[in-house]
């Protein structure tokens, strides 16, 4: 498929108003019945045990220890119970900077999880000689298994990273970081932007909230989301330049924006992460970024998406340690 066809397809997905979402009444927020109807439409489509826990155990380097962070229990909804795992440097020194890597906040964003596992297997060991590392490779295991943005209660974990979060996926990640990495110097959160953001997830959100969908053209390529309170644009640019060697960087739309936000540097936008309850706002780290890979592009592949995530983490750590 030609790149121009992919660009045209993305534009259509972004600009064509979707049909009414099949659950709920337009203009009326969902109640319990609509949320239950939505949950009934979410089958398990892949295995967290096979695709996350097994490789996590198999590829754990000697320099790392596997942390048992409890269980995510959805059994009251007739759903599985998920063991929660994180990875921490076996040698932890207070005089070293600390790196936090998170993936799978949105379970459907596959390269965020698989890229984190790839980085663990290939790069964790050499970085552990210079920095403390805490890795949460899959924050939302039910979302991973159902290829979903939300949790079973139709809540977005990545708008609920705040004290007393109503979302258990966010709550366990917050507790894990507070316990095991109370001071963080670098946080990189691994995400994707997909065509289903416009074809499924934004229409579902609008239906849930009784609003109209807020659609933007899907960027074709990799980009970063900085924090408006601590943008560190030279840091963001260093990560973009490293990833540019692996896959293409998203270009702005006709208004000079990416998904509705002004581009601050090539491939870089910013959100107010703490105010929005985003995962990237959960620490006081100086260096913060969120990766966004576009796996639906005709110009990339699954392997390239995973590699882009790995390279982004390496570049971020490189800035932190002055490489």
UniProtKB/TrEMBL annotation:
Q: Does the keyword Hydrolase apply?
A: yes
Listed InterPro entries: AstE_AspA_cat, Peptidase_M14
Please name the Pfam families in this protein's record: AstE_AspA_cat
Task: Give the UniProt record's GO annotations in the biological process aspect.
Answer: proteolysis
Compositionally skewed regions (Basic and acidic residues) per UniProt = 202-213
Q: Recall the GO molecular function terms of this protein's record.
A: hydrolase activity, acting on ester bonds; metallocarboxypeptidase activity; zinc ion binding
Which segments carry the region annotation Disordered?
A: 194-213
Q: Does the keyword Transmembrane apply?
A: no
Query: What keywords is this UniProt entry annotated with?
Result: Hydrolase, Metal-binding, Zinc
Output the superkingdom of the source species: Bacteria
Q: Which parts of the sequence belong to the Peptidase M14 domain?
A: 42-323
Cofactor(s) needed for function? Zn(2+)
Q: Which family does it belong to?
A: Belongs to the peptidase M14 family.
Record's protein name: M14 family metallocarboxypeptidase
Q: Which organism is it from?
A: Ideonella alba
């Amino acid at each position: 498929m030609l790149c121009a066809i992919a660009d045209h397809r993305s534009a259509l997905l972004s600009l064509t108003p979707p049909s009414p979402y099949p659950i709920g009444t337009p203009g009326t927020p969902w109640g319990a019945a609509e949320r239950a109807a939505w949950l009934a439409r979410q089958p398990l489509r892949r295995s967290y045990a096979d695709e996350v826990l097994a490789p996590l155990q198999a590829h754990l380097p000697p320099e790392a220890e596997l942390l048992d962070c409890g269980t995510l229990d959805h059994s009251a909804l007739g759903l599985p119970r998920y063991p929660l795992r994180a990875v921490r440097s076996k040698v932890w020194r207070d005089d070293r900077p600390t790196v936090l890597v998170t993936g799978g906040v949105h379970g459907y964003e596959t390269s965020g999880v698989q890229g984190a596992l790839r980085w663990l297997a290939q790069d964790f060991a050499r970085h552990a000689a210079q920095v403390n590392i805490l890795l949460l490779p899959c924050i939302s295991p039910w979302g991973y298994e159902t290829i979903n943005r939300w949790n079973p209660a139709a809540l977005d974990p990545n708008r609920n990273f705040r004290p007393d979060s109503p979302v258990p996926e966010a709550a366990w990640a917050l507790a894990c970081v507070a316990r095991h990495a109370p001071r963080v110097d670098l946080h990189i959160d691994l995400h994707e932007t997909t065509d289903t953001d416009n074809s499924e997830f934004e229409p579902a959100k609008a239906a849930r909230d009784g609003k109209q969908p807020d659609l933007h053209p899907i960027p074709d390529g990799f980009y970063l989301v900085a924090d408006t309170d601590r943008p560190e644009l030279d840091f963001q640019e260093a990560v973009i330049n490293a990833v540019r060697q692996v896959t293409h960087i998203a270009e702005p739309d006709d208004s000079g924006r990416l998904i509705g936000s002004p581009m601050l540097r090539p491939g870089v936008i910013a959100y107010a992460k703490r105010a929005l309850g985003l995962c990237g706002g959960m620490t006081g780290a100086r260096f913060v970024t969120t990766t966004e890979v576009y796996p639906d592009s005709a110009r990339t592949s699954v392997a390239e998406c995973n590699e882009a995530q790995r390279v982004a983490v390496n570049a971020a750590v490189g800035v932190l340690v002055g490489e």
